[in-house]
Amino acid sequence: MDRTVKISVTAGDVEIDYEGSAPAIGEMLALLRQDDSWSIMIERLRVAKNTAMESNKSATATKGESPRGGDFAALIENCSLKRKPEQVLGAIHYLREIEGVMDSPPRAINQLFEDAGMQAPGNLSLYLNRLRERNFLIIPEGSEDKNRFAILSEEGRAHLDKRSEK
């Protein structure tokens, strides 16, 4: 089965748009990394991310809200996460990827919702189990099958990515 892979990134006037087999894309990216345009693009993305985060923090500080709550609320809004299970998935993504937290007991997830001025999920285990059933979350081996160590699976990341495109 022949699979075509596509990668497309635009950062200012630097644009990367490749399509082909995985090995061909890998070769193109390896060549691109040797060129200055790759480092320019990465730096522009880093600056844009930092600018957005600083802007959000200053806006929420002006309102008297927690910067963390504002960041999480922005994620929920930008990804159009309307249903509570999707919001819980977003919370786990936020805790893992933005804050770098690897152990998130229910109180940490509920606190994140409260910091954002949102209603906490309530029965968090129910939502986490549903997300695991949909293969959006996985529990790494050696974590004693505890939901507090759940991480997003590839399907979970793809789901959030798809939501952010809407």
Question: Care to describe what's here?
Answer:
The chain has 166 residues and is mainly alpha-helical. The chain has two domains: 5-63; 67-165, Arc Repressor Mutant, subunit A. It contains seven helices and four strands. The strands form two sheets. Strands 1-2 form a two-stranded antiparallel ribbon. Strands 3-4 form a two-stranded antiparallel ribbon. Helix 2 (36-63) crosses helix 3, helix 3 crosses helix 5 (106-115) and helix 4 packs across helix 6 (124-133). The longest helix is centred in the N-terminal third of the chain and has 28 residues, at 36-63. The model has no long low-confidence stretch (mean pLDDT 82).
Briefly summarize what is shown.
60% of the residues lie in helices and 11% in strands. The chain is mostly helical.
Total DSSP helices: 7
User: Which strand order do you get reading across the main beta sheet?
Assistant: 1-2
Q: What is the CATH T-level topology of the largest domain?
A: Arc Repressor Mutant, subunit A
Characterize the biggest β-sheet: 2 strands, antiparallel
The CATH class of the largest domain, by name, is Mainly Alpha
Ends apart, CA distance between termini: 30 Å
N-to-C series of helices and strands:
EEHHHHHHEEH
| Number of self-contained structural domains | 2
Low-confidence stretches: none
Radius of gyration equals 18 Å
What is the number of beta strands?
A: 4
Q: Class by helix and strand content?
A: mainly alpha
> At CATH's second level, what is the architecture of the largest domain?
Orthogonal Bundle
User: What average pLDDT do the residues reach?
Assistant: 82
Oligomer: single chain
Shape: globular
- Helix percentage: 55-70%
Percent of residues in beta strands? 5-15%
